[in-house]
Structures are given as C-alpha cells and as structure tokens.
C-alpha cells in the first residue's frame, strides 16, 4: 500500500499542549489522511515527557498494544534516567486518538499505521536535532505494538533506508507473534476463511468474549496497583473485529516467513502462561493474554540480532509486573542498551541471531 511521506526538509510548527491524563507530559495531535477504513475524521496522538535534561543517548518511541494506550510513566522515567527523551504514540482509534465515531483499535491492514509511525519518527528526530540530542531512536512495542513495529521497520528498511537509519534498536514487551488458542485456528485454511470474512464484514465483532482477568490484575479499582482510564482501557477489553483479526493474522504470517528489522532486538516475555476466565492470583505472576511459547518460538524470526529473554513471574506487560520481575526486566533492558544500543558503533548488524529461547 502507499505510505504517506512527511517532508524532512521543512519543520512545521507543532502545537504541543498539556496531556489530558499525565502531569509533566505534553500531547500533539497528528492529523492523518483519509482513513482507508472509512471512519474519518481521524488522527493519532504523540505524547512526550517534558524534560529539560539533554537526551545524550537519543530518544524512545513507544507503541502500545490492543485495548491499551500510553500511561506507563515508570517506563518513561527509566529511559529518562538513562539519557533518552521519551515519546509515546497513541495510534489511530486508540487511547487519546479514539472518538465516538471510531471502531476502537480497528484497522484492516497493519501497514495503515505506517503513516503515523513515520510522522512520529520524523517529529522525534527533528526534536533531537533542535535540542542537540543523539540522533537515534529506540522503538518500543508492547503486545500488538510488538507486532506492528517490527513489520513497520522491516518495510522501512526496504523502502526508506534514510528514515530507517534513525532507528538504533527495537525493544519488544510480550510481542504478539502468533494466535493463541486451539491449533486449528492457526492453519492456513483458518487464515483464508478469516480473510474472506474480514473483507466482507470487517467491523463485525467476533463471537468471543474476552476475559477481564488481566485488567483486574492491573487496575487499582480491582486487584492491581495501576491507575489508568477505564474508558480507553476497559477491564474486559474491546471486542475484536473480523477485519482487524485478519490483519493481525496476516502480520503473524509475515513474521513466520521471516523479517529483517535491521537493528538489534530485545524481546521480553514472561516465563509462563496462565489463561483464566476470571481473576485469580495466578495471573499476577504469568502472562494471561498470550502464549509465551509462541513469543519464544517466533522472536528469532524478526531479524539477525535478536536477544529473547524470559522474565520469571512477569505479567503480560512485563513493566507492569510485581516489583521483583519488574526490576528484573528493567535490569535486562539496561544491560541490553549498554551492550547494543548506547554504543551503536560496536554493533555488527549482520550478525546471526544472538539468542533464540
């Protein structure tokens, strides 16, 4: 599909304003072109942490998952302490970008997101140039964002190497790389049937309810310690749609065929999966959303330099885990940044996969 290219020769005036949810953060509305799925008007939202400290190591661009938006300020603080400016993108129809006329989180092709991803990368690198920060960006993707971002970088490497050269690493937090559930759902016949229904009835809801166990493990109103907006991230999630799941499955199959994101990758996951229909304490120390064996299997297919690490007792969002696994995850990220990203001249990007499972 055709991807809209933002000009890199002129710096438009950006009208940042205080974020609606987070103190010491600002938000910027990104107007987008016509929605291929017919839900105009449409926009995305870029959020940044306000910090006067120089970004000596560059910047981070964070992309959320399904039924999610950026609220993980502790993650931003971790990167800020390491000398990174922090930005997060709420994709179209998600989080801050969602309005009442949108089908939440709906796209019929994950490549549609390239428009706001490219625009965000240009804004981040432009800000770094203006402030004298290091000219490189670490992309971070969680769950569905962990599928969207490697597909984007693989396309970017092939079609826009100048833009791709601004990216120095890819950090994935429980990336969604395969379809959980019964094996029959992962067959080629199932994918073809899903694609056919998606073309005809894209926004029709799937006849399957989502468990609220994960949301209840996180939010302070239930059993968790985290505060976020339940309209934009409901405990039971938004209902998935046929066209959206077909797009997801197309992305999975592209990963399984093999990508080359062109930068070092760190893929984090829990060490176990525990699916539950209702909340119990077991989901506090496991991924109750995705099958971690899928993450382990397919992470090496993302590029030539992939480190895949299981975090004992982590949740689906490893950075929202209980304290010990959360600190373990941050330590792993810190070591990876020091070894592979903070000093990019030392990286051999043609190396074989560093670690698989």
UniProtKB/TrEMBL annotation:
Residues of the signal peptide: none
Q: Please report the stretch or stretches of sequence annotated as the AB hydrolase-1 domain.
A: 60-321
> Can you provide one Gene Ontology molecular function annotated for this UniProt record?
hydrolase activity
| Superkingdom of this protein's organism | Bacteria
**Entries under Pfam families matching the protein:** Abhydrolase_6
Q: What is this protein called?
A: Alpha/beta hydrolase
Q: Which UniProt keywords apply?
A: Hydrolase
Q: Which PANTHER family match?
A: PHOSPHOLIPASE-RELATED (PTHR11614)
Note the Gene3D superfamilies from the entry.
alpha/beta hydrolase
Database matches in InterPro entries: AB_hydrolase_1, AB_hydrolase_fold, MAG_DAG_Lipase
Naturally occurring in which organism (per UniProt): Gordonia alkaliphila
